[in-house]
Write a structure and sequence with these properties.
alpha+beta, Apoptosis, Tumor Necrosis Factor Receptor Associated Protein 2, Chain A, 2 domains, 5-stranded antiparallel sheet, 8 helices, rod-shaped, TRAF-like, TRAF1-6_MATH_dom, tumor necrosis factor receptor binding, MATH domain-containing protein, isopeptide bond
Length: 370
């Protein structure tokens, strides 16, 4: 309607500009009418002009309706687009809510897994601690088993080899007879039994309890080159009364049997004599805490090249037997006295052997004095 009013105002202005002019609504059947200022008011109120005005108004309204129709279409399209976008947004919102719910559930599951992991980690630590304790326990048992095996080996050897004899003598001396030397040597070389033990013996009635361990194919750096001989301190019933650590010099003698027998004492036997003094700081010579201490002694006692000579040439293995004498020196005997002591006739009574040793010591002292 504002547009109609504007057109009418334009019509009035046009009429005022000239006394005679064509009606502005000529296109609407007023084109043949000539207007002047005096007939302007009359023409505007005429039926012809009013009909033309109605037609003009209808034309304008139809034009405006077309514009509104296009706007409605655009609005409908926008509305449709908005509806579609709203539906899409709703779907996205629902999906977001679903994902959020899933995230919450995932957090719950992760928390539960963390708790399970903590529990499993604690159980794993407990298992590791238990395994460590069990390993230490197994190691202790293994050590005890090794010691027991040594004891069993020693005792089995004593029972199985009744011909193995040890004879105690004066001043802490003993003689160990070993038979079946070839077989024992083969066992050592094949590692079936690398060492043999002597029967246990005492240095006196209530003295130290000891035994000898012999490697017929050597031990350690002497393996395959020398016989190795060691002293082993055993746990004895009188250890609480004895002096520790064990510090007395130990001497070994491998007897030259053939010279003693064939020359009937006319030639000095070639006994193999060696000695060592215990290391008082070594655990081998402390008071035993178990059945036996670690063996210690002389790794390179006698070369195997000499020990394995043929039977006719061998001075030490006769009739598949050897004799080893051991002296525990409690009184500080001079090393120069050892050959004399080891050459004494072991058949003599103990008191006679002791007397002969004392006389020899005095003789040498007097000789040195003169």
């Amino acid at each position: 309607m504002d547009e109609v009013s504007n057109k009418c105002d334009n019509i009035h202005s046009t009429s005022d500009a000239s006394n005679k002019r064509t009606c502005p609504l000529a296109v609407y059947d007023c084109r043949d009418v000539q207007l002047n200022e005096s007939s302007l008011q009359e023409h505007y109120t005429s039926e012809q002009h009013q009909k033309s005005l109605v037609r003009c108004t209808q034309s304008i309204m139809e034009s405006m309706n077309g514009v509104y129709s296009e706007a409605d279409i655009d609005m409908k399209e926008e509305k449709t687009s908005l509806v579609e976008n709203y539906e899409k947004l709703s779907i996205i919102t629902r999906n977001t809510e679903t994902i959020y719910d899933q995230l919450i559930q995932t957090d719950v599951e992760m928390f539960r897994c963390d708790q399970q992991n903590s529990t499993l980690l604690q159980e794993l630590n407990n298992i590791q601690t238990t395994n460590s304790l069990e390993k230490a326990y197994r190691d202790t048992i293994s050590l005890n088993q090794n010691i027991l095996r040594q004891d069993i080996t020693m005792f089995e050897q004593q029972v199985a080899d009744e011909s193995q004899i040890i004879k105690e003598g004066p001043d802490g001396t003993i003689v160990w007879k070993i038979i079946n030397v070839r077989e024992k040597t083969y066992d050592a070389q094949s590692e079936r039994q690398t060492s043999i033990y002597s029967p246990a013996f005492y240095t006196s009635t209530i003295g130290y309890k000891l035994c000898i361990r012999l490697y017929l194919n050597g031990d350690g750096t002497a393996r395959g080159s020398h016989i190795s001989i060691f002293l082993v301190i055993l746990r004895g019933p009188y250890d609480a009364l004895l002096k520790w650590p064990f510090s007395y010099r130990v001497s070994f003698c491998l007897f030259d049997q053939r010279t003693m027998i064939e020359t009937n004492g006319t030639i000095q036997p070639k006994h193999i004599i060696d000695t060592f003094r215990p290391d008082i700081n070594s655990i081998s010579f402390q008071r035993p805490c178990s059945a036996m201490n670690i063996a210690s002694g002389i790794p390179k006692f006698f070369p195997l090249t000499e020990f394995h000579k043929s039977e006719n040439e061998n001075l030490y293995v006769v009739n598949d037997t050897i004799f080893i004498k051991v002296l525990i020196d409690f009184i500080g005997i001079s090393r120069s006295m050892l050959p004399f002591i080891f050459n004494l006739n072991i058949a003599l009574p103990v008191h006679i052997q002791q007397q002969l040793i004392s006389d020899e010591i005095k003789r040498r002292q007097e000789q040195n004095t003169n």
